[in-house]
């Protein structure tokens, strides 16, 4: 229950603890990641960006450990999501690619690339980026370095591919992927609506 509802009081509590930890160990990337995430949750985006970029810079230094590079890719993942939410798809894509350069195994960044490419009007490339995630069994995916939401390998990826096929003028194919996304999603309403829209577009295309 402690992770439900408004978490601002916890973030406010964690922030001074994290800052003290950074003062003791300023080169630990995970602390920058955690502080950046905390600042993001508190709406302090400029400060969050500063901490996350610092974490990425540490991870790219010569001699950086594998752990630091993995944590740097997580910093990039948060930055990419932040830019994408602000409508800065090009910047988000660059962050996702920098994160993958740090740790190729960060599967969430494959989805991030696909989502950015979709917003940038490159739907075929979006499908290419995201499709490999569907070949993975969510129950079997395990990486001791990074935790994933199971939805990444089903509804999230299916939804991006559905939108990409819609953008490519293939509404029937889009409807199939939206249906599949709805079947796997905890909250399917969005995908059900998109499937209905795609089928409506397909019917109009036939009549025309």
Explain what you see.
- The chain is mostly helical and 208 residues long.
- The chain is 70% helix and 0% strand.
- The protein has ten helices and no strands.
- Helix 1 packs antiparallel against helix 2.
- The chain is elongated and about 70 Å long.
- The N and C termini lie far apart (54 Å).
- The model has no long low-confidence stretch (mean pLDDT 93).
Key phrases:
elongated; 208 residues; mainly alpha; 10 helices
The run of helices and strands is HHHHHHHHHH
What is the C-alpha radius of gyration, as a whole number of Å? 19 Å
Give the fraction of residues assigned to helices. Answer: over 70%
Approximately how much beta-strand content do the residues carry?
Answer: under 5%
- By secondary-structure content and strand pairing, the structural class works out as mainly alpha
Helical element count?
Answer: 10
Total number of strands: 0
Enumerate the spans where pLDDT stays under 50 for 5 or more consecutive residues: none
Q: Tell me, what's the shape? A: elongated
The termini sit apart by: 54 Å
Mean pLDDT score, rounded?
93
Biggest beta-sheet profile: none
Please outline the helices and strands:
Blueprint: H1 8-24, H2 29-41, H3 45-60, H4 66-85, H5 89-102, H6 108-119, H7 123-130, H8 155-167, H9 171-184, H10 189-207
Helix pairs in contact: 1-2, 2-3, 2-4, 3-4, 4-5, 4-6, 5-6, 6-7, 6-8, 7-8, 8-9, 9-10
